Amino acid sequence: MQALVLFLCFAALLGHSSCQSLASGPEEGSPDPDSTGALVEEEDPFFKVPVNKLAAAVSNFGYDLYRVRSSMSPTTNVLLSPLSVATALSALSLGESTRESPVHSPGSSSLGDVTCPRRLGKRAPLRIKSSFVAPLEKSYGTRPRVLTGNPRLDLQEINNWVQAQMKGKLARSTKELPDEISILLLGVAYFKGQWVTKFDPRKTSLEDFHLDEERTVRVPMMSDPKAILRYGLDSDLSCKIAQLPLTGSMSIIFFLPLKVTQNLTLIEESLTSEFIHDIDRELKTVQAVLTLPKLKLSYEGEVTKSLQEMKLQSLFDSPDFSKITGKPIKLTQVEHRAGFEWNEDGAGATPSPGLQPAHLTFLLDYHLNQPFIFVLRDTDTGALLFIGKILDPRGT
Predict the structure, then answer these.
(1) pLDDT, position 142
(2) Mean pLDDT of 322-326
(3) Whole-model pTM?
(4) Were 172 and a residue from 156, 159, 240, 324 both cysteine, which residue would form a disulfide, CB within 3.0 to 4.6 Å?
């Protein structure tokens, strides 16, 4: 079966990646009265900046994708790099004659500081049009690469590519090439960040993590009795929210339900770029007794069905990819590989002098010892880089 295989990789190795190059053309407009004379709610100035507006759109795609994946996996961990998937789809849309993506429109660049090359492979005798190759190379720094048509050799080529780009951080990602493939889209991402303030490894110990009201497992828990973090309590969602800074202009926001028996769905349904931005503005800097599990998770699998549920069915049914090749082709499978890790590593032993905690009359505790949700985002643009639902930190 003739096939196109599009490899795209968003690399956040060692946490040294940010989204400074999320860009689009200038935006116009300010709040105007609607037809009834009522004033339209003024847009937050943050989202009037073109790069932030684009980051919000891509992030909201990511939150939607996460909700679909989470609903499909109600009893297991979920890990996604939505930016990786969005970048791959954006590159593919260059081949659609009827669609214009703002991500690679004139004057814009790719989604983030992508540190790995991208390659497009095809099984002969498909011929890829130069009119597709040129903008792909301009926007994504890649040129097509011809695969052999031999499933064993092509599989080896794909896995070698993933290993090279991820520097061995991810296991070989593709076990076999599916039959009857027209276009296989593969997004790969790995993240290992450093906290702004490192944890003392001597304070890491085995502690209880409550899977639910009755089941408990012992996992390595990092601890800081005088952690400086940003904190808030959301009474509507019945959860405690904390934010920890990472090096490289990134931060992680944790959503911890007040009760271990609480369903995470209410929190998940509230996640949007605008909601997270509002939270970021409202959290207060405090000192707390902090514990959180060491984490090393991976995900590999299809997100095809998830994307089909997100009104992208046309890509799979009847796309016009005539910009790619003269032969009729369509997107048949989207695969995602993600790895995520945090441990005690950090840039400094003490908090930054600029972090001044609020004065509290009591000592705050924040223990991530039960199921929680985390959001990893770029602090400058608000772009969603990774999102996870942790029901069991052992990764099972």
Answers:
(1) 64
(2) 85
(3) 0.84
(4) 159
User: What angle in degrees, to the nearest 10, is found between the helix axes of 82-92 and 130-140?
Assistant: 150
CATH number for 4-25+43-193+297-340 (one of 3.30.497.10, 3.20.20.70, 3.40.50.720, 3.40.50.2300): it is 3.30.497.10
User: Which segments of 31-150 does DSSP mark as H helices, in order?
Assistant: 50-72, 82-92, 130-140
What whole-number distance in Å separates Cα of residue 354 and Cα of residue 351? 8
Q: State the fold for domain 195-293+347-390.
A: Alpha-1-antitrypsin; domain 1 (2.30.39)
Identify the pLDDT of residue 126. 66
CA 236, 389, 375: angle at the middle one, nearest 5?
Answer: 70
pLDDT value of position 130: 86
Q: Check residue 381 and report its DSSP letter.
A: T
Report CA torsion sign: 285, 295, 112, 320.
negative
What pLDDT is attached to residue 170?
77
The mean pLDDT value for 36-55 works out to: 76
**What is the model's pLDDT at position 17?**
39
C-alpha angle with apex 60: 56 to 64, nearest 5 degrees? 175
Amino acid (1-letter code) at residue 317: D
* Cα 267 from chain centre: 17
Cα distance between residue 327 and residue 34, in whole Å: 47
Determine contact, residues 54/273, Cβ cutoff 8 Å.
Answer: no
Query: In angstroms, how far apart are the furthest CA atoms of the chain?
Result: 73
Model pLDDT for residues 278-291, shown as the tens digit of each residue: 999 999 999 999 99
Mean pLDDT check: name the lowest of 3-7, 52-56, 160-164. Answer: 3-7
Contacting residues for 72 by C-beta, under 8 A, at least 6 apart: 305, 306
Place of tokens 């339209």: 40
- Residue 328: asked if its preceding bond is cis (omega within 30°), the reply is no
User: Sheet harboring 183-192: ordered strands across?
Assistant: 144-147, 119-123, 4-12, 183-192, 331-342, 295-302
Q: Which pLDDT score, from 0 to 100, does residue 294 have? A: 96
Cα separation, 289 vs 240, whole angstroms: 14
Please calculate the CA angle 162-184-67 and round it to the nearest 5 degrees: 90
Given a contact cutoff of 8 angstroms between Cβ atoms, the answer to whether 59 and 80 are in contact is no
Q: Where in the chain is the domain with CATH 3.30.497.10?
A: 4-25+43-193+297-340
CATH 2.30.39.10 intervals, the chain: 195-293+347-390
